[in-house]
Amino acid sequence: MILKPIKTKKDYQAALERLDKIFAAKPGTKEGDELEVLGILIEKYENENFPIDFPDPIEAIKFRMEQLGYSQSDLADVVGLKSRASEILNKKRKLTLEMIRNLNSTLHIPTDVLIQSY
Asked: Does residue 45 sit in the same domain as residue 61?
């Protein structure tokens, strides 16, 4: 395949089909190099045409709590008080800068997610 920028849906489909054919190519081979470059081109096209927005900050907190097996009491240890944790999870209290820092360092939720309005 001749590598070129992916500009249309037709180009994108052709690139995906080619990627599927050479997916198992070994690194350092001609096809391996093609696979690497094609992956970069596909990723660029997808980022421009199918952007993924950040999740809602509170939903991100709930999801991460579930992943870690955290309870509301565990969240209270991060944000200060159990009542504050409840208010945050019910979207009745906004996150402060200090809470965002604590959530980022404790739950490893990116600050870009936590600073969004909700």
From this structure: no
